[in-house]
Amino acid sequence: MDNFVVNVSGLVRRPGSTRRVTLAGHVDLALDQVERCGPMTADLRLEAMAGGIWVRGVACAEMVLRCNRCLDRIGFEARAPVRQVYGEDAGEDMLPIGEEGDVDLSTVLHDELCLSVPLVPLCSESCRGLCPVCGADLNEGSCEGHSDSRESPFATLEGLLEVPFDTA
Predict the structure, then answer these.
(1) Taking the CA atoms of the chain, what radius of gyration do you get in angstroms?
(2) Which DSSP string do the residues of 110-149 spell out, in sequence order?
(3) Distance from CA of residue 20 to its chain's centroid?
(4) Which of 103, 111, 116, 143 is most buried (most C-beta within 10 Å)?
């Protein structure tokens, strides 16, 4: 991922100086929701501050997700804000600036894109999902061949109680 390594030696120890960079490359997002992730681009501003570099901007990538209910493909444009501090003396809140004056943005960009992916992607809020019996897409109509009523998985437990679940 050398595409995401930037040399900042010209900015270090020059507080207030800035530089804009645009990075592009492939990021592998190993998330269940993401079927495919296109190339990522990041428009960033690097600003020197006392003891380090402040990186901020936006990372974008086109993705194909799967609807959590009906499993249809969904086009999704991820837009992730990027904010990270790199320092000569890396600490708890700062990532290190390398000996050559390089900062590796790959981890930060990867993590921010992962955080921008919805945990439960939906093709629409009104998605009805798949029939749990036959797997038919309920968005295309009701399915035939089985009754709509199903026996409760708690029916055996209900028999042990004096009060039915409906009235409990």
Answers:
(1) 25
(2) HHHHHHHS-SS--S-TT---B-TTT--BGGG----SS-S-
(3) 25
(4) 103
Strand order in the sheet with 52-66: 18-25, 34-49, 52-66, 73-87, 95-96
Residue type, 16: G
The candidate with the shortest Cα–Cα distance to 56, out of 17, 96, 83, 21, is 83
Question: Amino acid identity, residue 14?
Answer: R
**Coil vs helix vs strand at 50:** coil
Half-sphere exposure (Cβ direction) of 63: Cα atoms closer than 13 Å: 29
Cα–Cα dist 79/61, whole Å: 7
DSSP bridge pairs for 22: 43
Non-local (6+) Cβ contacts of 34 within 8 A are: 63, 64, 65, 117
Query: Global pTM?
Result: 0.75
Tens digits of residue pLDDT in 54-82:
999 999 999 999 999 999 999 999 999 99
Cα separations (Å) of 49 from 2, 12, 85, 95, 122?
A: 25, 8, 9, 14, 42
**Euclidean distance between CA atoms 134 and 131, whole angstroms:** 6
Per-residue pLDDT at 16: 80
What are 46's two structure tokens?
């690097």
